[in-house]
Amino acid sequence: MSSSQRKRRSKLRIRFDILIVCKRPTRKTHIMHNANLPFDLLNSYLDFLKERGLIVEKKEHWKTTRKGLKFIEAFEQIQNLLK
Question: Contact at 8 Å (CB) between 20 and 72?
Answer without folding.
Answer: yes
